[in-house]
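Retro notes
What went well: the complex prediction finally ran end to end.
Inputs used:
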Amino acid sequence: MDASMAGTILAAIFTLAIFSLLYRDNPFYRFAEHLLVGVSAGYYVVHYFSSAVLRKFAYPVFVSQDWWLLPGGLLGLLMLFRLSRHTQWVSRYAIAFYVAAWSGYLIPSVIQERVLVQIQGTIPQLIGATPGAVIGALILLVGVTTILVYFYFSAEHRGALNSLSRIGITFLMIGFGASFGYTVMGRVSLLIGRFQFLFQEVPEVLGL
Amino acid sequence: MADEGHSHRRSGRLIELLTNVDRRIIFLVIALAVALPLLFPLNLPVRPSREATAYFEALEALDPGDVIIFSFDYEPDTMAELDPMSLATLRHAFRKDLRVIALTNYPGGPGIALRNLEQAATEYGKQPGTDYVFLGYNPDYSATMLRMGESIQATFPTDHSQTPTAEIPLLQEANSYADIPLLVTVTASALAEYWIIWAGGKYGQKIITGNTAIQAVLIYPYYQTGQLAGFLGGLKGAAEYEKLLELPGTGILGMDAQSMAHLLIVLFILLGNVGFFLQRRAARNGGAN
């Protein structure tokens, strides 16, 4: 039995152990769950340490002598002060630097790509558009506007405002429905993936 | 009076049946609905959507020898949905003699990336270094995406197997977004949005993306505005793409099971609603009596 076959058999056993929870909680499920959490935690700790601390800091600084990386590394080390209640305030300098730097980078870009371009996208492009595209664009415009009305809380929702916000709720419900449908599809896909593994990969590896 | 009592009891049993189904029965029926079509395929038709067609056409429009970036932005928990997309995209790229610069923004991604790359490369006789390269994982996805616009060699001094990227022929020709006509990200999270912000917004990189079904809902607006050139949503998207490629894979194979499970879930929702309304009517009648 080679390593690949042993791995596949183990994966099949653990898949069945996880599925056993569907009947009721049991020691096989518990064992598989704890093993998964433990192995994952170990993998991530080692991987992060190797890829970030060793490859991006220790090796370039102490072997390649890229000394300009040193201040960033020292700032990162300040995070370890969080381990003690008395010294955890020191770590706030690192957090403050990180938050400020990334806010400067992110805020203008996010506003541009997630807000301004999206607002532009709701304005119908009528010139040269097919009738279907025009109808679609108008539905989008009505949907976005009425949903914004629904979230307008500075006036009581009565009369026209109430009617518009109710249309907004309808659009929201359609959006939530689509989201729920996609979520179901995602979850069923995971089950299909496991069944494909059990019914196709496992027999193939075992030569059945 | 006896008839009325009998009718009430029957109605009560029906309500009990519809509103208190043992969850294990639901699990069993769903399992059968998924397993049986996998064992005995129904070959239900798959019709490519506009988004999947756009994804296909973005790759199809490239010329042989062009370089694409392929980012495996997922981990084993979403392999079932995303591996079919990755494999189909790599097969499409290698079939068209495109060259691939692959990377991952997830620590759990390298194993998945290597498996898919090696499988597709072996099928089409492609060589590492000249036809494709795997750069591996780099911490901090935002910084990675930004810096790749300046220099891929500086962002990844070595590839996944520790070969200096300056010595890799493929990276000597393509060293930033300016040299690369298309970026593909297959992702289980909001990373497609970050690629849009950093690579698309800042450097004008053309992007297509494959997403988990849950993520797909959030991706539609970016396709509608043209920030994405095309996208695939969930296993359905993978199946549509495989259909366009005429390379049936696990996406198409899974769609029969997906359809049966959906039909069953719709049926359960309908039955649950019937039970709810019967229960409400019974409560009203009870109150009236």
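What we learned: DSSP finds six helices and no strands in chain A.
What to try next: split runs per interface for comparison.
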